[in-house]
Write a structure and sequence with these properties.
Elements (H helix, E strand, L loop, with lengths): L5 H4 L14 H14 L3 H21 L2 H8 L6 H35 L2 H12 L2 E2 H8 L3 H13 L3 E6 L2 E6 L1 H9 L9 H17 L3 H6 L12
Antiparallel strand pairs: 1-3, 2-3
Helix pairs in contact: 2-3, 2-5, 7-8, 9-10
């Protein structure tokens, strides 16, 4: 296998099939996403060439039955066809998880750091607030406040509970972790505490995922990826 191919360099493990480690799927998902959203056709073609080259190398050393399952799946034994289909679905799952994770994180951060939204965030840092109280604190109409809170709720920045006829809003643990990590309130927080808070938020969020989603959710790109 050619070590010059970045797909191999980022996921090399000589003890694994084809010399590719268990995290190869996440690396490949990263490259696929980049190829799809790349503004430059040149970069998409470059990534397509890397994938084609790796596929050809794998096909040359694969067991005959495996090669048949990839090229002519209908002619392969049932167990190999099933493995091939599950592999395709697994990759699709990883690509979607990678894309959604980055998309949600990007929008989450841009929304919570927005100057207007920070007014709501700071008000809720003081204490839990009803829609009416928040509208008064940020000097917005109740209708505008309601729309804004819906947006924040959909992104997981705030949540709410009912008490009588009132909806009481509060910041989620994910939002509190981001606020501490990025020091959005401008307070002098200890950096080590910020890191601890962020780690606790991640562990909590990760623990709520299903076992399948948890195994496929990427933890972010390695810095080396950008050199590819």
């Amino acid at each position: 296998m050619s070590a010059q191919n970045p797909l191999i360099a980022f996921a090399a493990d000589s003890a694994k099939p084809f010399g590719l480690g268990s995290h190869f799927e996440s690396v490949l998902a990263d490259f696929l996403e980049e190829a799809v959203i790349a503004k430059s056709r040149h970069r998409s073609v470059e990534i397509a060439s890397l994938i084609e080259g790796l596929l050809n190398e794998c096909m040359m050393i694969a067991q005959p039955g495996v090669a048949v399952a990839a090229i002519h799946p209908d002619e392969a034994p049932l167990e190999l066809r099933e493995a091939y289909i599950v592999g395709q679905l697994s990759l699709a799952q990883t690509v979607m998880s990678t894309h959604l994770n980055k998309k949600i994180c990007s929008r989450f951060l841009s929304t919570i750091t927005d100057e207007t939204n920070l007014k709501y965030v700071k008000a809720l840092l003081e204490k839990e607030q009803s829609n009416k109280d928040l509208a008064s604190l940020v000097n917005h109409s109740e209708e505008h406040t309601s729309r804004k809170l819906k947006e924040l709720r959909e992104l997981g920045i705030i949540d709410s509970y009912k008490t009588g006829k009132w909806s009481i809003n509060f910041l989620t643990s994910a939002a509190l972790g981001v606020i501490a990590e990025y020091n959005l309130t401008g307070s002098n927080m200890n950096d080590s505490n910020n890191a601890t808070d962020a780690n606790e938020v991640f562990e909590h969020a990760n623990s709520t995922l299903s076992p399948i989603m948890r195994s496929f959710t990427p933890l972010g790109r390695k810095k080396e990826r950008y050199a590819a």
